[in-house]
Amino acid sequence: MDRFTMEKVRKTFTNGETKEDILKGINLSLMEGEVTALVGASGSGKSTLLTIAAGLQSATEGTIQFDGQNIATMKSDQIRKIRASKFGFVFQFAHLVPFLTVKEQLLLMLDIADSKQKKVDKKKEVDRILKLVGMEHRKDSYPTSLSGGEKQRVAIARAIIHKPKVLFADEPTASLDSKRSREVMALLRDITKTYHIATLLVTHDEEMLIFTDRVIKMLDGKILAESN
Ligand SMILES: Nc1ncnc2c1ncn2[C@@H]1O[C@H](COP(=O)(O)OP(=O)(O)OP(=O)(O)O)[C@@H](O)[C@H]1O
Ligand SMILES: [Mg+2]
Fold first, then answer.
1. Looking at the whole model, is its pTM more than 0.85?
2. Fewer CB atoms near the end CB (10 Å): N or C, the chain?
3. Domain boundaries, position 28
4. CB distance 161 to 106 below 8 Å
């Protein structure tokens, strides 16, 4: 099912007198339960597209349809609420809070998402998600004692603990070796299927494409081709 649709999205950056068109009319749909990969050369606009889709920066033109609403015309407060409760994020580095344990990072996320669950249920949910990503045994650990792959597993747990509808992942395996990359990608794919999430994945690593359902190729601010 069509979960998220961008239509005729353009982004222009103005630097003094010069205007640069970075996204030149993007049409893109993300489907429930599918990982959509976004590939293309450095500077082609992948991260710009992802951050605009997630409402982290505004589009110059176009519509971004999610849950029957157009994110592109929403006030920042409204977008913030959607982002915290309906979207999840994974980036190249885990960006865990150094002075919180694994468990505390996830509980904090539930608070940010404004979860109405009781404290005891939140703790149960944290245990369940940590089990899912294979990090249950490290729930009382601080990030400094975790490996890169383990940190990224916690980052994935944090990205899905509030049951997002859309997951945005910008090069989530770029800091990992190939074995850990495959593990993290298998996890992202499985979670996408199990929880019926629409996942947008930016990657430079062709090896990771076997874990995705669709590949969209960008060139110079445009979508060049789409393949299954
Ligand atoms: N805030 C900004 N102001 C001006 N130009 C920007 C801004 N953000 C991005 N750009 C430019 O937009 C282009 C696309 O950048 P973007 O980060 O989206 O590329 P990318 O495809 O993600 O590249 P990479 O694979 O290296 O991460 C680049 O030329 C970049 O310099
Ligand atoms: Mg990028």
1. yes
2. C
3. 2-227
4. yes
- Is residue 5 within a helix (H) or strand (E), and if so which, with residue range? strand 2-15
- pLDDT tens profile 86-103: 999 999 999 999 999 999
The protein residue with its alpha carbon nearest to ligand 1, atom 8, reads 48
Total number of domains in the chain: 1
CATH number at residue 25: 3.40.50.300
Determine the distance separating the centroid of ligand 1 and the alpha carbon of 26, expressed in angstroms.
15
Residue-wise pLDDT for 24-76, tens only, equals: 999 999 999 999 999 999 999 999 999 999 999 999 999 999 999 999 999 99
DSSP string, 173-193: TTTS-HHHHHHHHHHHHHHHH
CA distances 159 to 32, 94, 104, 135, 216, Å, are 16, 10, 14, 14, 23
Q: Compute the chain's Rg from CA coordinates.
A: 18
Ligand 1 neighbour 48 (Cβ under 6 A): yes
Nearest CA to ligand 1 atom 6: 13
